[in-house]
Amino acid sequence: MKRKLLWKLCLILATGLVSFFYLLHLFTLKTEESMSFIAEQDRKQLQAWGAHAEKLYTTGQTNQLNAWLAELKIQENTWISIAGFKVNHIAGEPFDKNIVGGYHFGRSIEWKIHLYFEQNPIMEIPFTHINGSLLIKLPERMRPGNHWTTTKFILQIIMPMLVLVVLSIILYRHIITPLQQLEKATTEFSRGNFSVRVAKYLGGRKDELAQLAFTFDKMASRIGELINNQRQLISDLSHELRTPLTRLDIAVENFDEHESKQHLERITRESKHIRKLVEDSLTLAWLENEKPIIKQEPVDLVDLLDVLIDDARYEFPDRQLVVHAPTSAMIENSCHRALCPAIENVIRNALRYTPASEQVTICMSLEAGCYKLQISDQGPGIPEQFLEKVFEPFFRVDDARISEGDSFGLGLALAKRHLASVRAKIHAENAPNGGLVVVIMIPIS
Question: Which of 114, 134, 304, 318 has the maximal Cβ count within 10 Å?
Answer without folding.
Answer: 134
